[in-house]
């Protein structure tokens, strides 16, 4: 498999469609009935939410508080694969600023954004589809994708030059988020009984990969027929999502239900990706999620992906493989692994499930 070809059809910017004032969406955004959002998805305030964890406990001198926080993280990883964290060490003003610069980017004239139009080869730049399957039903969103790590892939020229502060803000934001990911990787390692630096080393130590996808979901005149982002699990390691401060939209699979996440102020939403499912031999599972859109408000989110070094083989940790629970997955590099989503687009959990030994 390779992604060397171009997009199979001319790219249409969803934001332009939305701004054109159309009353019904084009057929290529209409999902089959089984994939459409449910009218009764739990938007009411008393319904379930993903766990909220105060990470301050991890940095406390009090060992009981540290143990309690680790145990909350452990429960959240096992039961949900998703949780929110507050007191995480990333400055709230920086989070606001990161959202602001990206909102400004998407509100610039189309020709400014088009200068960064992406291709399926690396996906870096301004995009409007995932996957290169001809005739695919598309999602109601545009995005911007960029590399932060390894340093050799980071290229400021591929990051937007306007607004003028964007590069500096995103550099600082990414630095702080990477630090937070390191802290979470330690907590996850300890929680499955491994040395605290186990997962980080398995990811390549200092040579890990990290990239950012900023999602822009324009207003949609028929939100019941489409999705902002189809159901998928994240192919990488950990994802730290900075959601829109005003508009919800992320839905997480919980058994047969879709739970609409209600973000806490200045929280990050953390989720386990497929590579951690593989390394922990499915003690932790990556969980399907998707995004719904609405007719009144646009939505912006920043998904920061913390990934293994791309040419390192990832396989179930030997310490977590036993005669009763043999290795569930073959070893594979992340470069090989992520080709699936890059070719096929978001497809639920089909990839990691299909790799599982019977
Ligand atoms: O926009 C969101 O809330 C989720 C985005 C997401 O799942 C992704 O970018 O992979």
From TrEMBL:
GO terms for biological process: defense response; negative regulation of defense response to insect; regulation of defense response to fungus; regulation of jasmonic acid mediated signaling pathway. SUPFAM superfamilies: Clavaminate synthase-like. It comes from the Eukaryota. It catalyses: jasmonate + 2-oxoglutarate + O2 = (1R,2R)-12-hydroxyjasmonate + succinate + CO2. Its cofactor is L-ascorbate; Fe(2+). Keywords: Dioxygenase, Iron, Jasmonic acid signaling pathway, Metal-binding, Oxidoreductase, Plant defense. Pfam families: 2OG-FeII_Oxy, DIOX_N. InterPro entries: DIOX_N (IPR026992), IPNS-like_FE2OG_OXY (IPR044861), IPNS-like_sf (IPR027443), Oxoglu/Fe-dep_dioxygenase_dom (IPR005123), Plant_2OG-oxidoreductases (IPR050295). Residues 25-45 are annotated as: Disordered. GO terms for molecular function: dioxygenase activity; jasmonic acid hydrolase; metal ion binding; oxidoreductase activity, acting on paired donors, with incorporation or reduction of molecular oxygen. Residues 207-308 form the Fe2OG dioxygenase domain. Belongs to the iron/ascorbate-dependent oxidoreductase family. This is Fe2OG dioxygenase domain-containing protein. The lineage of its organism: Eukaryota, Viridiplantae, Streptophyta, Embryophyta, Tracheophyta.
């Amino acid at each position: 498999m390779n992604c060397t070809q171009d997009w199979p059809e001319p790219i249409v910017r969803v934001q332009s469609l939305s701004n054109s004032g159309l009353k019904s969406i084009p057929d290529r955004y209409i999902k089959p009935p089984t994939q459409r959002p449910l009218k009764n998805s739990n938007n009411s305030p008393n319904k379930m939410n993903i766990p909220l964890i105060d990470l301050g406990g991890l940095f406390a001198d009090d060992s009981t508080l540290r143990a309690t926080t680790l145990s909350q993280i452990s429960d959240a990883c096992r039961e949900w694969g998703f949780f929110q964290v507050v007191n995480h060490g990333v400055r709230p003003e920086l989070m606001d600023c990161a959202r602001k610069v990206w909102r400004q980017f998407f509100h610039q004239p189309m020709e400014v954004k088009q200068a960064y139009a992406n291709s399926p080869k690396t996906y870096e730049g301004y995009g409007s589809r995932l996957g290169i399957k001809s005739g695919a039903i598309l999602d109601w969103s545009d995005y911007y994708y960029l590399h932060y790590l390894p340093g050799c892939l980071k290229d400021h020229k591929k990051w937007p030059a306007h607004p003028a502060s964007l590069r500096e803000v995103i550099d600082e934001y990414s630095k702080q988020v990477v630090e937070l990911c390191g802290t979470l990787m330690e907590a996850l390692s300890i929680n499955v009984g491994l040395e605290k630096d186990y997962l980080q080393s398995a990811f390549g130590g200092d040579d890990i990969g990290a990239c950012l996808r900023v999602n822009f979901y324009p207003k949609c005149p028929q939100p019941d027929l489409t999705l902002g982002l189809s159901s998928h699990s994240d192919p990488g390691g950990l994802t730290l999502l900075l959601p829109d401060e005003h508009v919800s939209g992320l839905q997480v699979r919980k058994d047969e239900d879709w739970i609409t996440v209600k973000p806490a102020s200045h929280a990050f939403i953390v989720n386990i990706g497929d590579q951690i499912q593989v390394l922990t031999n499915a003690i932790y599972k990556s969980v399907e999620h998707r995004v719904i859109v609405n007719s009144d408000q646009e939505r912006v989110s920043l998904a920061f992906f913390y990934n293994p070094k791309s040419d390192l083989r990832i396989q179930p940790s030997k310490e977590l493989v036993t005669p009763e629970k043999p290795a569930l997955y073959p070893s594979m590099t992340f470069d090989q692994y992520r080709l699936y989503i890059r070719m096929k687009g978001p497809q639920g959990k089909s990839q990691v499930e299909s790799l599982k030994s019977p």
